[in-house]
# Entry
Amino acid sequence: MSTGWLARYPFGLTDTDPLGAIIRRVAHLEGPSRISADDFIAGCHRAIVALATAVDDLQARAPDRQALRDAEERGMFSVDGEAELLSWFAHLLTVRSDLWEVVGDASGAVGDDVRRVVGTQEWRCFLIGYTAACLIVRIDRLLLEEVACGSLTQRKLNEGSVLHRIPRKQYTEIFESFTDPAKARMMEQAMRFAGRHRGLLDGMRDDPLVGDLAIRLPAREQVLDPSRRRYLGLLADFVVHAFRRRGASARQQTVFAALEAGGRFASELRDHWTPPRITDQLRARIDDLLEPGDVLITRHDRAFTNLFLPGYWPHAALYVGSETDRKAMGVHLDPERAARWSGDRRVLEALKDGVLYRPLETTLAVDAVAVIRPRLDPADIARALERVSQHEGKLYNFDFDFFRSDRLVCTEVVYRAYDGIGAVEIPVRERSGRPTISAEDLLDLAVASRGFEPVAVCGGPTCPDRLVDGEQAREAILRENRCERCPRSP
# Structure
């Protein structure tokens, strides 16, 4: 029997026996190291009071409905909006899991059979378990009926998050649990049992251990809806949801596999023998002017993927700086990521092998590069670098779908670093029915001084063998973005 919630709501339990067995054998326990029935009940009571407060907090901090509707209309969440939703959902999952453990332990104390609820301790256990069940129904309804009303939100919650320790398909699991016929029958039996013994439960309001739970029970029972019509409606909704998700998942996996195979093949098709225009001398000059947080927009003239990406500039990477820079900025990382952000690895870049810290020399082995700089103070840049580093190690998204955050494309690294930091807003555009940002979208923001500023350009059609900076860089980007004769293919 799981008792993980005891660690989060401790009350001095020293006996390691399963709690249900402890209650059944309590009359035979002796000695100061043993837990009494009253101690067990008191501990369960403190846990349920703490969990009820947590449920109130979930209700109060639920994501704003208008913000969710706005995201549904846009077709994707903002970086901050997604983080807020997932953080809230992670808290809900923790509270929900703890409530289920309380239900299990309280019901185990009476042998999982309401017919054994006869004495004072058994009635106290029933009241605790029934209260926990009411709280579970409350947060499930909050999720299903108030938060995850749109398909976009449902997809995001099903996506999972390593950062927030959310497994995949948790929304569907809750929906399935809420409409499970066996659980519905058990809840209905508990409601009928409580109804038949309403007078006894009301009489427990003066109980020294659980009296407050009896007082609040009628209000907490209001979330229970015994309507069979409503239950059948929810069950039908779940069947539709499950069918749609299975179909979408199968289609997505098939399409993604094809795109990944094609993307990997296309990324390898380039001229590997002609030296890039950015020479060692030019790389050294670029290195000298770079600051942590700068964005590198690059181009390989002979890359086959240029045919499929908009504009002259197809790729973006984020210069994060050296290990010394990271420590000076106060960027906090877990030890594993900190170890990978070291040595010559000064760029966070999404390529076919994933989102990884890479050597600057590798990123600048290109034919053209533009450098743009966020218009943020050092503290905001440090915050952005710390935030985006949580995505290091993820896979590359060959589907080019900004909705997913478990796989990233190159420009999404920049988006997830800076969008919503300070005054920076990076608008997402729909292309081929998907929300995306191109590298040239980022350059357009810099030219317009909207969150970014041009720093330098090197290797483009207007400066093929030299580096220009300042206003000359702005003019070079403008000309290259609008040049109809710019080479688009090898």
Notes: The longest helix spans residues 228-268.
